[in-house]
Amino acid sequence: MSHITVCARFRPLSSKERRDHGDSVSVQSLDSETFIFKDEKEEDFTFSFDRVFYQGSEQVDVYEFLALPIVRDAVNAINGTIITYGQTGAGKTYSMEGPSILECDQQKKGLLPRVVDGLFQCIKSSDEATKYTIKLSMVEIYMEKVRDLFDLLKDNIQIKESKVHGILLSGVTEVSILDSTEALHSLSRGIANRAVGETQMNMASSRSHCVYIFTVQQEFPKDKRIRTGKLILVDLAGSEKVEKTGAEGKLLDEAKTINKSLSALGNVINALTCSPQGRANHIPYRDSKLTRILQDALGGNSRTALLCCCSPSPSNASESLSTLRFGARAKHIKASPRVSHNDDKYTKKHGTQSPSKDGSCERIL
Ligand code: ADP
Ligand code: MG
């Protein structure tokens, strides 16, 4: 049994933040897990996470601590989820993609390209007889609609639940990827489609959640057994408050929808941790598309990592504090990942090993 891994990452100060507040920062490092954060009123809050990545942190450190164990498990049919959370401009997309998905500077490469490399490396070093197939789907959740980023005509994908496979996106495009280069080009195509949507629908990428789904299928030739691991990466929409952005009209509607789905995420996390027994009877996964898609991830049949992205600047202290509080709450989730067998014969024989509906989370007391 393992907990959700929760990390905080502070990006370097932006030039605007430097202009406004010079070099001053709200975060004071104590060690690699603990820091003191000063709010707007100079009040101190101490936070402890599984790991804190301070302003000078490298992309590779984030990958190795947060993602590599999940990648290794995905290749062994244990579902994994990596989520970046934080206000717009806090470094979610930089952490996820790097400066660009096709970034050539090895040092700056983000989680996604590293995850892709990691998947293929794990497969290469595994038992040669086992046959692997990797498929990639990309969707974005905008105004509570799930849009296929590989086929823009599919702009309202339905979410279904299967006893054996868990949560599924009905009819979503799955692209087979044979190597890292192919994967990166597919990712880049999906991201470009996101940009097309932006001009058509006049939305910025920070107003939608972007979900990357890698399905890793293993086939054992000896007994024809098949098992599948799903690795989901989520670049969430900005968590800033509506009042602060001064949004009106359509922008206000977007902001309200984002806040609603992020609140739903917070409520699910609360429900998983609120009662002394560990969790409430009812977990409100169905309150948003986001929580529904992440149901397996948060509910237990997955290894989950949350990266709370923050600005270190006093000018963003209240937003950063709310991000850190979200992360602190999430730390109470315990997950118990299991191997997902989707071969009918095998599942019947080992009936208890199919993904459970509500997972098995406990509160750390
Ligand atoms: P978000 O996706 O949370 O809205 P971005 O990832 O787009 O934010 O980051 C905002 C800006 O800060 C971008 O210009 C990005 O390049 C820069 N940035 C974010 N994190 C880092 C980092 N760790 N190192 C260097 N620059 C960063
Ligand atoms: Mg972004």
UniProtKB/TrEMBL annotation:
- This protein's species is Vitis vinifera
Q: Which GO terms describe its cellular component?
A: cytoplasm; kinesin complex; microtubule
The chain positions of domain Kinesin motor read 3-333
Start and end residues of each stretch annotated as Disordered: 334-360
| A GO MF term | plus-end-directed microtubule motor activity
Question: In its keyword annotation, does this UniProt entry include Coiled coil?
Answer: yes
Keyword annotations from UniProtKB, A to Z? ATP-binding, Coiled coil, Microtubule, Motor protein, Nucleotide-binding
> By what name is this protein known?
Kinesin-like protein
What are the binding positions for ATP in this chain? Answer: 86-93
Which InterPro entries does the UniProt entry name for this protein?
Kinesin-like_fam, Kinesin_motor_CS, Kinesin_motor_dom, Kinesin_motor_dom_sf, P-loop_NTPase
Q: What is the lineage of its organism?
A: Eukaryota, Viridiplantae, Streptophyta, Embryophyta, Tracheophyta
Q: Which family does it belong to?
A: Belongs to the TRAFAC class myosin-kinesin ATPase superfamily. Kinesin family. KIN-1 subfamily.
At the top level, the lineage of the source is: Eukaryota
